[in-house]
User: What shape does this take?
Amino acid sequence: MFRYALTRGALLIAGLLVSSALIFLTLRVLPGDVAQLIAGTQAGPEQVAAVRESLGLDRPLISQYLDWIGGVLRGDLGTSQLSGASVGAELVEKARVTVPLGLMALTIALLIAVPFGILAALLRGRASGASMSFTAQAVAAVPVIWAGMMLVVVFAHWLGWLPAQGFPRTGWSTPVRAFEALLLPALTIGIVEGAMLMRFVRSATLQAAGQDFVRTAAAKGLTRRQALVRHGIPAVGLSIITVLGLQVAGIIVGSVVIEQLFTLPGIGRMLVADVGTRDLVKVQGDLLVLTGFVLIVGFVVDLIHHAIDPRQRESG
Assistant: This one.
């Protein structure tokens, strides 16, 4: 186990370094000039060149990258080129919205996917099971922004149960209002992601039903359904853990869109604004944190899967 964790940890570090280099280089080929933006549209070439020199943008790219990644390794993501604020401090502030939103969405997705996916597998061949599978497939195909607008119309405008936009200025010091502000966005992401995951849970449950240990349990006197519930469904948990890493990535992507729709002051909305203003240091910090979070989740999922799956331990 220790050797496996060490190997996966080395791959995680390598992945973070490669991602940081790709993020840095990709942002440098985007159109636009942050020095021109800061200097103003009326600024002459000399003024723009002076701003570019003050920001260090006239230095070789390799020097700029090494300075940035060196700061990251020390825990410093840099300062905004426009406002001069600490990128790390702003990310921590915005994470107070994005992280609870993601956790709520993931919880909702699991509450939908696991019980209904298993139930759809148990009801295979019946009209109710077919309707559940069809509904999941239809919901999974819905764009998250369209689903959000529909939920706003129903729960905010028609019923008036939840706020349509915004987040309280007092933040989590008023937890009830903060929770209400995030509930509708979390439902939007959770329902769509839950429908996708439900299809996977159904397939994994049906696959478990054909395993030898389920058939052996049925041969010992259990009904097919009892054997599946007692012995097959626990095995499905391994498959769910494996796919959770992909779900986390989907939730992060959905959060970027949903924070725009619901005007939430989270990391996703800040990222879109920073791209628009060409604040390269903030954008690369935002992207590196999001990418690192996805890679770390995948690393943790791998370790958990390796720890609880005896087949992987034996192969290791």
